[in-house]
Amino acid sequence: VHQSKLDFFCKLGYGKQDICKVLENLGQEALEDDVLKELIRMGSKPQALESQAQPSPLKLVARGSCSTSPGSKWLGEDESDSSDHLRPIVIDGSNVAMSHGNKEVFSCWGIQLAVDWFRERGHTYIKVFVPLWRKEPPRQDSPIADQHILEELEKQSILVYTPSRKVKGKRVVCYDDRYIVKVAYEKDGVIVSNDHYRDLQNENPEWKWFIEQRLLMYSFVSNRFMPPDDPLGRHGPTLNNFLSKQPVLPEPKWQPCPYGKKCTYGNKCKFYHPERPHQAQLSVADELRAKIKVPLSLGKEEEQRNHSP
């Protein structure tokens, strides 16, 4: 009976010493409820509760790292939520929506497709800029499809409305392209748009370089968001390197010599020769010097041997 009660309260997390003291005071035939009351009166706590009551030690977190567990924040929160190896993404919402709507309808579903594509890649900082007047009811001259998507993205802190207002019945709209380029430049991110922003390139030389190097164009193929695999051309970086803060450089590939074994350049040839795997890259003068030093060193060794007793 003593052992069974001891095992029962040990499973609850109480210490053996406290349990034995209570059983000695109340006797071996005491009821479990009485033993439990006495343990509580003594101030004994289960080990699980004691570990919870103790304050967790403070942890030092490196600057720029995310202190919260993954998935605890909405994707696209500000500042430190961007991952270490992926660039922030700034999407031109109007350009993407009109492209998906075939330049006839402002299709909000196209914005959702683009956001989902970058989410699946692991990007955490995603911002979409759309003019504020797109919240108004659609009209015949500016139709909007799936307008509820804008509200959902706004709740997730992904969508940002650029300001606009009406003055004497006329709409005054702020230039949303300037917001897009400015935020992407400050965050050192990527602009997702098919617009070239030529007016902003002429306005600021730093923006000009940034737009040329960080503009990611795209296409929609059967409701599928598809950016190119070579955003900066055939000889530029791959899409993975383009979207990464620390691009992985490919291994250098030597171009084979067009003359092959008939090449007369020797060691001066800058192309790859598979028949010369261990060829030293020496100039002609260095090669002649190396050939001269070998027999001289051999002659000195023979002289030393002859003069030695």
TrEMBL record:
Q: Which InterPro entries match?
A: Rege-1_UBA-like, RNase_Zc3h12_NYN, ZC3H12/N4BP1_RNase_Reg, Znf_CCCH
ZnF (C3H1-type) spans are: 251-276
GO CC annotations, alphabetized: cytoplasmic ribonucleoprotein granule; nucleus
Q: Which cofactor does it need?
A: Mg(2+)
Molecular functions per Gene Ontology = hydrolase activity; mRNA binding; RNA endonuclease activity; zinc ion binding
Residue stretches making up the C3H1-type domain: 251-276
List UniProt keywords, sorted A-Z.
Endonuclease, Hydrolase, Magnesium, Metal-binding, Nuclease, Zinc, Zinc-finger
Which protein family is it in? Belongs to the ZC3H12 family.
- PANTHER family per the record? N4BP1-RELATED (PTHR12876), RIBONUCLEASE ZC3H12D-RELATED (PTHR12876:SF11)
Q: What is this protein called?
A: ZC12D ribonuclease
